[in-house]
Specification:
The protein is mainly α. It has 10 helices and 2 strands.
């Protein structure tokens, strides 16, 4: 088991040497502006150590952290500080708490949860316009398409086709999927075909934010989506990134325009009410 030892700076009881009021023959830098020095909170130091051990490879996805009491002893902090650290790490998607006999706090695998939450919060608070999210999604998706056209295996392209046809079959049965997660698998498969883990995380994160935005207006899936997806895939099989990106951009821009118009209508209705 990895031993976690608190190494955060603690306030020293010793009095620091006094700073002389003036230094002969020195020019005073009176243009400088200093900020108040604040003592670092213990839970932040605990979080930093756990992240550092992840970066160093001492902790890996799936590893179980010591229990709350043991961590408090190793870090020489209270159990409340340990709980606050775990909550912070969990909100960032670094760890996950599992219940049951084999439960505990475990290191998560690669996840965009923290990034998704940060973007969702910024959009909800009005700190990030919806247009910024949709523009970024279009650019990131086109980047993924370009890389996938160069790197995707035939098996990966077959997987994308299977997903497209599975959704098409549901439309034919009159059972069009309303779940954003089911509809978003298409984008995830394209991202996976880039063989770039960071792009997969970014696409997943942007897709989740878009799902949350669309859930507010609860749109009805349109069968034209299948036409677009088949067109994109056809160009990808031909390794024609430019045409595939063009088809995807037109579709995502339509989604963007619809989302923004619905949000404007909703905002107008609220003002009138």
């Amino acid at each position: 088991m990895v031993r976690l030892v608190y190494t955060g700076a603690m306030p020293s009881p010793k009095t620091s040497p006094s700073v002389p009021d003036a230094v002969p023959d020195a020019v005073l830098a009176d243009h400088l502006e200093f900020r108040e020095v604040r003592v670092r909170r213990a839970f932040e130091a605990v979080c930093d150590q756990i992240r550092q051990q992840l970066l160093a490879g001492d902790l890996r996805p799936g590893d179980r952290l010591p229990g709350e009491r043991e961590m408090a002893e190793q870090f020489n902090v209270s159990r409340g500080v340990v709980r606050e650290s775990i909550r912070s790490l969990e909100s960032m998607g670094v760890v996950e708490a599992r219940t049951g006999v084999a439960g505990g706090v475990f290191i998560r695998g690669s996840t965009p949860k923290g990034m998704t939450q940060a973007m969702s919060d910024m959009v909800s608070l009005g700190q990030m316009p919806i247009g910024v999210v949709t523009e970024t999604r279009i650019e990131m998706t086109c980047m993924a398409i370009r890389l996938a056209c160069a790197r995707a295996t035939e098996a990966e392209l077959d997987a994308i086709e299977q997903d497209v046809e599975a959704i098409a079959e549901r439309f034919r049965r009159g059972d069009a999927p309303r779940s954003g997660r089911a509809l978003g698998e298409f984008y995830r498969l394209i991202a996976c075909a880039t063989h770039n883990e960071l792009i997969v995380m970014l696409i997943d994160s942007l897709s989740e934010v878009m799902r949350n935005l669309l859930a507010r207006i609860d749109p009805q899936p349109h069968p034209d989506m299948i036409v677009m997806r088949r067109k994109v895939l056809r160009h990808m099989r031909a390794r024609d990134a430019q045409q595939a990106c063009a088809a995807m951009t037109v579709h995502l821009q339509h989604v963007t325009d619809y989302l923004e118009s619905q949000n404007r209508s909703k905002a107008g209705a609220v003002r009138q009410g």
